[in-house]
Hints:
Elements: H1 3-33, H2 40-50, H3 61-100, H4 123-132, H5 137-175, H6 181-200, H7 202-219, H8 226-264, H9 273-292, H10 300-303, H11 318-327
Helix pairs in contact: 1-3, 1-6, 1-8, 1-9, 2-3, 3-5, 3-8, 4-5, 4-8, 5-6, 5-7, 7-8, 8-9
Amino acid sequence: MEGSEEQRFRRDVKVLEGLVAVVAVLGQLVAVVTTPPPAPRERLRQLLSASAGDVTSLYDVTSLTSLYDVLSLHDDTSHRAVTSLRGALRRFLWQLRAALRHRAVTSSENRGDVTSHYDVTSLRQALAALQADPEAPWTRAGVRDELRAWRDAVTALEAAWSRLAGEATRLHVTLGRATGLWEDTAMKLLRKMMAACGRASAFPRQLQRQLGDVEATLSRSREVTPAVLQDLVAAVTKVEKLWEASARLATQHLLVALWDIHGLFSSDRDSRGSHVVAERCQRATEDIPRLLGGQQGPDSEAAAPSGSQSLSARGWSWRQIWRIFWEF
């Protein structure tokens, strides 16, 4: 790999790692808010047993009862904070799923299959038409039309990640009014979430820069010479390769991880759920260089961590699984 190409490749890897980071931190946060805290009496017992010396000699029955009441009151406040944060994190999960669920590039013939604001059609097809008839004004116009469609999709994606970052900030500010050990843990994770959303926002910004390169190449050339076409193909390839890699990263890893996170909210949650999410995100990170290489990734069954029960193992078809990821 040449120097500039290697730098671009590493930059794209970092950009996609930002998407994984958001899912990983969300898994940690949901695991915290869905783990039941000990009851006040049990917390009091833990406090007394953890203290050095004969603590019972320092408190009479009235003092211990007062301490129990304080712990009960704090638990009521903490319970309300947990309930509120759980609801907010559910909404955050839906928004994140929407931001991640764009599909791979479709052909212009399948334009009617586009079901998301972020779905796009192939720029390379438009370039092929331009290459076949470079003198025809409509072929250059066709490329410009596709570029506008891509700009619109990426701008919508950029707005989605901006909303996610704003939501993480609001959650951090709201929870900051509460105090306690649980709140401190959640606050630290929310700060990580804010940072992760900032990193993930680099994904649409990188796409915008790459689209700008395509537009600049098209605009500065009055004639579509073979050299210009070569530059256009190179620029378009960079855009579509990053887009395709992010789509496969989502369908093969991140949407599956979001399904696991969704399961953490369930009353019959798997005790290993948070570990499964962490393992899946680690596999996603390790898979990014291969995804950027343009190869087809493994199916979700192959990507599932050992010990987890995949959806296909439950007897569901891949069509059913895809529909669940699209609609859950």
